[in-house]
Amino acid sequence: MRRLCYENKDRLLAGVIVGGWDRVDGGSVYNIPLGGTCIKMPFAIGGSGSTYIYGLVDSEFKEGMTKDEALTLVKKAISHAMARDGSSGGIIRTVTVTEESNDREFVPGNQLPYGPAGW
User: Fold this and answer.
1) Strand partners, 106
2) What predicted TM-score, i.e. pTM, was given to this entire model?
3) How far apart, in Å, are the Cα atoms of 72 and each of 92, 107, 114?
């Protein structure tokens, strides 16, 4: 992925976030910004609404969060971004990657934890 981003840096208009699980490192998240640098991070944020939520995520993220704690923070952060950014969509889709499975979840717009339906 890093090579793909680097070799197409003049044609790409977005960075890439890659997450997964392996037997060596367990869960991992990599941020590949424009230019192709591959950076392993504890979490990654991207997209047009991301500028609205860096402070929120910085203040509430902690190492060793449970799956439920992490999902709650993700949903809160995404719904805050959507409330401020008109290009961020109106629903939340998550995929939690573990050794055992890839768990998908969908949150419709009328059930967001923050925003027009939840104000």
Assistant:
1) 93
2) 0.85
3) 12, 12, 11
